[in-house]
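Reminder to self: tokens first, then the designed residues, so the page reads top to bottom the way the pipeline ran.
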């Protein structure tokens, strides 16, 4: 896991080139664990999980 300052929306869609689908899903789940309401930088680095029960993950 890394923290990349300034990654943001410009490079968000390129993440799939550098990370596997499993890694991206794991990062999304970690984001939900720390920010279940999605208040911190929504959609900036990771696309939101597309589940109706994401608050339960």
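Designed residues (57 positions):
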């Amino acid at each position: 896991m890394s923290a990349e300052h300034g990654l943001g929306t410009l490079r968000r869609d390129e993440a799939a080139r550098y990370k596997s689908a499993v890694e991206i899903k794991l990062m999304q789940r970690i984001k939900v664990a720390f920010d279940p309401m999605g208040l911190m930088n929504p959609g900036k680095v990771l696309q939101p999980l597309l589940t109706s029960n994401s608050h339960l993950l």
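The helical segments are 8-12, 15-18, 21-34.
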